[in-house]
Design brief:
The chain has 19 helices and no strands. With 413 residues, the protein is mainly α.
């Protein structure tokens, strides 16, 4: 027994300081998004937005997020990580008031724009996380980030589904977003008091810093692309293709389940819970798999699961069938997320992580700008079209990784 405890303690000894602080704050953040993720699109539709407008809202949000990512990366590498993370976590918290009191979808759009502007802190968050995980533990480290914050969220989608089922879509979601507000406030306070700066000699942020950062954005993208090793360019290209498919799943899966599969809100929440439970059970074992078999093989294995399972999703017409689909999606997610994040950390030097990671994510976000609107158009034409299109894109991503991506022999620290 003592040997087991010693082994567990050694295995998780890297979980301290900033990594532990981020995980604690994400306990609140993940809980909020697991409550809202399945019901955002039905809420917007109930407030008067048709599928085409829902898609356009996603495009607007992605465009705003794309505009702030590179300035955020410049700020992360020049002015430090903590300042921007703390300030903008508070701002995003108060953006949810627009959802709570929204009389129509236009107010939700205002809250969405403010929220995505606040996500200028994400490059700093990515950088401080990469700074805080030892190279030899990155698979486990990113698995911990994916698993531990999800522990309290396992029943959150079902609770949200119950509230929507009992009170109706609009009143139920107002209650959900009120819970979101207080959870995000708690996360803001945790980051304020416990997060520690990792950049040497950071400068205090001034308002002029944002103006200069925006001005330097295009040059930063160009320079970051030039600094990428060849393999990282192929990884970036593959995930640009993948990014185009993501909004179609995220924004229209719940509508497809309600409109075509024919299950109710509680069942929709339950299948999301199944996916979360899969992440909790398999996250750490699969994190070790990522460290053992490598990042490339893990990502290819995930797509080997995702593509045929999408066909099962399109043919599902009952809750048990849908549960199997979400179980397999959850297994694939346990592989792809820690593998992708670990691969980026392996390839990018510490002093360039904020800028290059910010550039990669910005390019991915910009790829989603037309994708959301296009997904709304496809769903309006036929609910199956967005998902057929995502399978084609998934095959393309798999081919890029299979033939063009090589893992580095020496990983960056």
């Amino acid at each position: 027994m003592n040997n087991l405890l010693t082994r567990i303690k050694t295995e998780f000894s890297f979980m301290r300081g900033n990594l532990l602080t981020l995980i604690v704050s994400w306990l609140f953040v993940f809980f909020t998004f697991s409550m809202t993720a399945s019901f955002e699109s039905p809420f917007r539709r109930a407030l008067g937005a048709p599928p085409e407008i829902i898609g356009l809202m996603g495009s607007v949000g992605a465009m705003v997020l794309g505009l702030v990512r590179i300035p955020g990366a410049v700020i992360a590498d020049k002015y430090g990580r903590k300042q921007i993370i703390v300030i903008m976590t508070f701002v995003i918290t108060f953006s949810f008031l627009f959802h709570i009191f929204a009389p129509d979808w236009k107010f939700v759009l205002i809250g969405l724009v403010i929220s995505n502007l606040s996500l200028i802190y994400q490059p700093a968050l990515d950088a401080i996380l990469a700074d805080s995980v030892p190279p030899e533990k990155r698979g486990m480290g990113y698995a911990a980030v994916n698993v531990i914050p999800n522990i309290p969220t396992i029943f959150a989608p079902t609770v949200a589904g119950y509230l929507v089922d009992v009170y109706g879509t609009i009143p139920g979601m107002r209650i959900v977003y009120t819970i979101v507000f207080f959870c995000m406030l708690a996360a803001s306070l945790v980051r304020l008091f416990f997060l520690r700066e990792t950049l040497d000699h950071p400068k205090p942020i001034e308002l002029g810093a944002f103006k200069v950062a925006f001005k330097d954005s295009l040059g930063a993208i160009r320079d970051a692309w030039r600094e990428m090793p060849r393999t990282l360019r192929f990884v970036t290209a593959a995930f640009l293709i993948s990014a185009f498919e993501e909004p179609m799943f995220r924004m229209f899966t719940s509508l497809y389940i309600l409109d075509v599969v024919g299950v109710g809100e509680v069942e929709l929440g339950l299948v999301t819970t199944i996916s979360i439970a899969t992440t909790l059970l398999l996250g750490f074992p699969f994190g070790k798999v990522v460290d053992k078999i490598g990042r490339k093989r893990s990502i290819l294995s995930a797509y080997f699961l995702f593509i045929p399972t999408t066909l099962l999703f399109l043919s599902a017409r009952s809750f048990p069938q849908l549960a199997i689909v979400y179980l397999i999606f959850g297994i694939g997610g346990c592989l792809i997320m820690p593998a992708y994040n670990a691969l980026l950390a392996d390839l990018i030097p510490k002093e360039k992580r904020g800028r290059i990671m910010g550039t990669i994510v910005t390019m991915n976000i910009l790829a989603t700008v037309p994708a959301s609107a296009f997904g709304g158009f496809l769903y309006g034409a036929s609910p199956v079209y967005p998902f057929i299109f995502t399978m084609i894109l998934g095959i393309a991503v798999s081919l890029v990784f299979l033939f063009s991506v090589k893992e580095p022999k020496i990983r960056e620290v």
